[in-house]
Amino acid sequence: xxxxxxxxxxxxxxxxxxxxxxxxxxxxxxxxxxxxxxxxxxxxxxxxxxxxxxxxxxxxxxxxxxxxxxxxxxxxxxxxxxxxxxxxxxxxxxxxxxxxxxxxxxxxxxxxxxxxxxxxxxxxxxxxxxxxxxxxxxxxxxxxxxxxxxxxxxxxxxxxxxxxxxxxxxxxxxxxxxxxxxxxxxxxxxxxxxxxxxxxxxxxxxxxxxxxxxxxxxxxxxxxxxxxxxxxxxxxxxxxxxxxxxxxxxxxxxxxxxxxxxxxxxxxxxxxxxxxxxxxxxxxxxxxxxxxxxxxxxxxxxxxxxxxxxxxxxxxxxxxxxxxxxxxxxxxxxxxxxxxxxxxxxxxxxxxxxxxxxxxxxxxxxxxxxxxxxxxxxxxxxxxxxxxxxxxxxxxxxxxxxxxxxxxxxxxxxxxxxxxxxxxxxxxxxxxxxxxxxxxxxxxxxxxxxxxxxxxxxxxxxxxxxxxxxxxxxxxxxxxxxxxxxxxxxxxxxxxxxxxxxxxxxxxxxxxxxxxxxxxxxxxxxxxxxxxxxxxxxxxxxxxxx
Amino acid sequence: xxxxxxxxxxxxxxxxxxxxxxxxxxxxxxxxxxxxxxxxxxxxxxxxxxxxxxxxxxxxxxxxxxxxxxxxxxxxxxxxxxxxxxxxxxxxxxxxxxxxxxxxxxxxxxxxxxxxxxxxxxxxxxxxxxxxxxxxxxxxxxxxxxxxxxxxxxxxxxxxxxxxxxxxxxxxxxxxxxxxxxxxxxxxxxxxxxxxxxxxxxxxxxxxxxxxxxxxxxxxxxxxxxxxxxxxxxxxxxxxxxxxxxxxx
Lengths: 546, 249
Ligand SMILES: Cc1cc2nc3c(=O)[nH]c(=O)nc-3n(C[C@H](O)[C@H](O)[C@H](O)COP(=O)(O)OP(=O)(O)OC[C@H]3O[C@@H](n4cnc5c(N)ncnc54)[C@H](O)[C@@H]3O)c2cc1C
Ligand code: SF4
What we know:
The structure holds two protein chains of two kinds. By secondary structure, chain A is an alpha+beta fold.
C-alpha cells in the first residue's frame, strides 16, 4: 500500500518552537561534546521557523542561561529588559492600579521579546551545531512499528485537490523514522492528541484546559513609547464570571505587543473573544497608546491553562512529549517559554543518555524522572491551585490566588478542572452580548485583522478543519448554541450562510483564513471539529516582532 | 545546452510589506524572504527542459547578500544542478545585475538565459531586457510557452489583448510570465540533496563589475488609504456630490 520513501534519523523533533529547538540544540551539544554521531531532524509546519509562533512575550531567561550561557555574545534577540510592571483593574470607564504587583507578575530580570525572533535565532544556533531543520513540512500521521511503538511520522501529501484527487503537482508525503520522536507541537498538538488516545496518556489526570490569546503588534507614536513597560489588566470588558485579561508590552523600536486572553471555559456562547479584545482597546486608559500608531500584525493562539493537575504521562514506546503540547505553562505568570525550553532540554538529556547508555527499552523513562527533579516541576506545583480558583469567578479567584501565593502552594488540596467544551450554556439561557462597531482607528473587524496575519493556504486542497459529522454544525451547534464557532474563531473561518429567503442554513468553512490557533478543536461543544494539518507551509506568516 | 537561471531573494509574497516610519524604504528586518515567484517559474521551466532532454545543465545564479544562498538552495532543490552567488551587500539595481550577469554569461556560455519578467519587490521589469541589449541577443519577454527547436526557441508571449509567437535564434534571453508553468513542490529528499550540490560564491570585483547603485531613492510612501464611501439618497444628491464635493463633473 505504502509507496512513500523513508528517511532515518536518530532523533526526530516535531515542531520548531522553543521546546523543540531547545531539545534539538541540547542533543547536538551533548553529542558534539562526546564526539558522537547523532542525526537530529526538526520538521516545522510553518513556511519558516517562527512563522507560526505567537507569544506575549515576557521571557524568563533562566532556561536560555542554562542552554546557551553566552547568548548575549551570540546576539540573541533579548534587547528590551523588563523595567516596570503595572497590574490594573479596569471598570468600563476607570482604571485602578493595584498598589502591589502580585509576585508572579514581577518581571525584574526578564525581557520582553518576540518569540518568533528568538526561535529564528535559536534555529541558526541549532543548524550551526548540525541539526537539520525543515520548515514547510507538517507531520500529518504518527507511524507505528509491529510492536505498536512509535517509529516516526509521515509528512502530508502535497498537491491533493479539494475533491481529494491528485493534482498535476502531487508530491507524496515522506516517512521519517527515528529511534526516538520528540513531539513539540505546542498547545493542542494535532498528533499529540492522537497519542493521548493511543497510549491512554491522560488516564488519571485532569482534562487540559485552555485559554485563547489574540494578539496585535503595533508601531506607536515614538513620543508614547516606553520600552520595558509591562501592563496587565483584569476586569472590564470581561464580566466577573469569565476568566480573561490583557497584556500590553512596550518593546524597542516603538513596538507594542498587545493582546487579550480569554479562558476557554467561558459559559456564554454569545461571547466573542475577538470582539472583547477590540473593545478592550477602546478603554479610555488604553486607547491613547494606539492613537497615532499603526497596526502591523495580528494573530491568535491557544495556550494550556491546566497546569500541574493536567500534565499527562509524558513518554511511550518510541517517543515523548515536551513543551506546551504537554501543558507546562505557568498560568498565573502566563509564561511557558522557559518551561517549554527546559522540558526540551531535560528530554534531550534523557534521550541522549538512553540512546548512548545501551538501554534497549523503547521508552525513555528517564525523562519524567529527571523532569520531576528539575525546577519545572516545583514551579508548576507551587501555582497549581491558582487558575482553578477562578472557576467561581474573579473575586473568589483573586482571594484564592492571594492565599495560594502566601502559602506558596503548600495547601494540602488540589483544585480540579472541567474540559472546556463542556462549559457552554445553551444560547437561549445566556444573555446576548452586543459589541460596538469597530472604529477603524484602534478597533477593527475580523477580516482586516486576518489579513495582517499573512495567512495563506493553497486553495485547492481539502479543508483541514474536518467535521466528524456533517449535520452537527446545524443540528446542534446552531440550534442549541447559536453557532459559537462563528464567534470564537479569531480568523472568521466559520460562517453560517443561508439561502436568500433566510432558510437552509449551512456551515461554510473558509479554511484558507485559519491561523492555527486550535480553538475550534478545543471548544466545539460536541468535539465534532477535528483540526488536522494542512499542506506544509500553509498557515500564518507572522512577521518579525510577533 | 546549458540554461542559466538568475534568481532573486525578495520579501515573500505573503508578507504585507510595511514602509519604514522614516520613509527610507520597506521594513526588511526579520521579514520572511523567498525566491521571486517569477524566478521560481523560470527554474521550473529550465528543469523541465532538462527533464525533457533538451537542456544538459541548469545553473542558478543570484546577485545579492550571503543570505541569497538560501534562495539558490531552493533552486537546487527544484532541480538546478549547481549555483553561483555574486555576493554583494549593495542594493542591487537592474543595470548592475544585467552587467554582472553578462560577465558571468561570458564565462559560462549558456544557450538560454531564463529569468523572471520582474521581481516583486521593485517591480522594475528591466533586467531581462537590459541583459539582452548588453549581450546583443534576441529576447522573448513575458513568455507563457517555450518550445525549443533546432538552434531556435519558439516563445509565446503574453501581450495586451492576446498572444504573440516569436522565434528566437539561440543564444537568447527569455523572461517568464505567470502562466508558463506551475512550479513543483520541492520534496524533502530533494531539499536534502540540494544542500550537497555545488554552490560557488564570487565577488562583483572578481567579475570586473561595478554594482554601485545608479538610482537614488528619495522617498518610499504607502499608497493613500481609500476613503470610506457614503450612501446618497437619490440621483439628484449624487449629481450634486459629484459636482460640488468630488468636482468630477
Ligand atoms: C497569547 C499567548 C501569550 C503568551 N505569553 C507568554 C509570555 O509572555 N511569556 C512566556 O514565557 N510564555 C508565554 N506564552 C506561552 C508560550 O508562548 C508557550 O508556552 C510556548 O510557545 C510553548 O512552546 P512550544 O515549543 O511547546 O510550542 P509552540 O511555541 O507552540 O511551538 C510549536 C511549533 O510546532 C509546530 N507544529 C505544531 N504541530 C506540528 C506538526 N504536526 N508538524 C510540524 N510542525 C508542527 C508549530 O507550527 C510551532 O512552530 C504565551 C502563549 C500565548 C498563546
Ligand atoms: S479555524 Fe480553528 S484553528 Fe483555525 S483560526 Fe479558527 S478557531 Fe483557530
